[in-house]
Amino acid sequence: MNKSVLSLALTAVLGVSLSACGGSTQASAPTSPSVESIAPSTPTPTPAALNKSPRGNIIKKLGEPGGVTNKEGKQMVNFTINSITPDVPCTNQYAQKSQNGHFVVLDVTVETTADFVSSTDQRPLTFDLNPGMFKFVGKNGTTYNGNLGSGAAYGCLADAEQLANGRGVGPAEKATGKVVVDVPDTTGTLVYQNFMIGSGGWEWNF
Fold first, then answer.
1. Structural domains counted in the chain
2. I need a surface site. Which of 24, 164, 169, 184 has the fewest CB within 10 A?
3. What pTM value is reported for the model?
4. What is the pLDDT of residues 63-108, one digit of tens each?
5. Secondary structure in 3-state letters for the chain
6. 204 located within any domain
């Protein structure tokens, strides 16, 4: 199934929220959920502690978890970008050159809970974090128009190295792996916005 279609389908069956170690923010979704910050294993921080960019995204540090809750406030997904490394050599024997200039590799950990199911029929859901869900903002503040999820990005690493090998992560699972984005520069800001979130997202400077 097309990954964007899958994520959009999640919006139709489940109200979701962003969670982060920085505070709370409102997200607009078809189900108009109440968005609350629920940080795994830590007290809920005060709104004043929220660190947001001018773009309205939660600014994350490497190794700092982000996540998603449902409209009841139950934690469904925790994910962490552990490192961001520019110009990592490709390992796939059929790898091609970067289409945008540089491959940047994200080392990622994703863990879901048993609550990651449809609120209407308890159908298992899938969390995806793929190159096409990222945007690149350059040092001059300009958002790059190109597709970070180029065919070359998907084909850079061997299947066994890629996060969940492109299948996504289902309920009560933990996965670690790498995501390759195809960007025009080796420094800047990566913005991750999952289509199952109505608005807002997370971003990392590197």
1. 1
2. 184
3. 0.76
4. 999 988 888 889 999 999 999 999 999 999 999 999 999 999 999 9
5. CCHHHHHHHHHHHCCEEEEECCCCCCCCCCCCCCCCCCCCCCCCCCHHHCCECCCCCEECCCCCCEEEEECCCCEEEEEEEEEEEECCCCCCCCCCCCCCCEEEEEEEEEEECCCCECCCCCCECCECCCHHHEEEECCCCCECCCCCCCHHHHCCCCHHHEHHHHCCECCCCEEEEEEEEEECCCCCEEEECCCCCCCCCEEEEC
6. no
